[in-house]
Design brief:
The protein is of the alpha/beta class. The chain has a single domain, classed as NAD(P)-binding Rossmann-like Domain (Rossmann fold, 3-Layer(aba) Sandwich), CATH 3.40.50.720. Helix content is about 50%, strand content about 15%. It has helices spanning about 20-30, 40-50, 70-80, 105-135, 155-175, 195-200, 225-235, 245-255, 260-270, and strands at about 10-15, 35-40, 60, 85-90, 135-140, 180-185, 190, 220, 240. The strands form two sheets. Strands 3-2-1-4-5-6-9 form a seven-stranded parallel sheet, with helices on both faces. It has a two-stranded parallel ribbon with strand order 7-8. Helix 1 (about 20-30) runs parallel beside helix 2, helix 3 (about 70-80) runs parallel beside helix 4 and helix 8 packs across helix 9. It is globular.
Length: about 270
Amino acid sequence: MIGPLTDRVIVITGASSGIGAATAVECAKAGMDVVLNARRKDRLEAVAERVREHSRRAVMVIGDVAEPGMSNHILNAASSEYGRFDAVFANAGYGAESEMLSFTMDETRKMFEVNFFAAVDLLRDTSMRLIELGSPGHLLMCTSCLARFSLPLHGAYCATKAAQHQICWAMRGELRQHNIHVSSVLPITTTTEFFEVSARNSGREAKQGMVPDHAPKFFTQPPERVARAVVKCLIKPRPEVWTSVTVRMMAGLMTMFPFLADRIGREQMRRA
């Protein structure tokens, strides 16, 4: 069956697990070919195989998104293999659960390099190439619902997500004249290895495949839900991709009534 995304090409960073891997598979189901980037070759090979099971092509680019020139390297691979790229999903990132007074400035800068600067670099390089070619395109960043409000113990991570979200808003207005869409993806707590990695980064015991005990279980989703929402946005672009109406409404209320955010923050600290 031929659909609106058939034979289009998407670049996905952080594609070896979680939301990135799930999105690669869902895009393949929709008929897209993919370029997969991550550091772990074995994990990436497994995702590429899942893509090929849906009769779509997959190209792997192994490496850290924060390495100088990595964005161009990824896009060159897409151009070399497919002769084109239609969308990019800047998804690579990580977190850490730590008080800001314990989280060093070097650790903060490193998180911004991966979560923010590498993502912005990819979107800038992609948009400049699309403009030069006169081609339409779609740029997406995996931010977070925490782009709209912050939580204690996650200050640096929330800051990177808020920065991503604001860049998306700015670039959306700037690139509309070139027929390039820009979207923020704002998932809620997702059942991935994110929290396992976050625990290790914070020097705590990591519980494999589990979210923290203090995270509300009714606000958790599988990565496949986020991936399906991304595919819907690729078909019909929109500025923001929310995967929970409830959390979106909460974010709006906390903006209007900051004392609500303070209450949630106090409860977060108590449970942590």
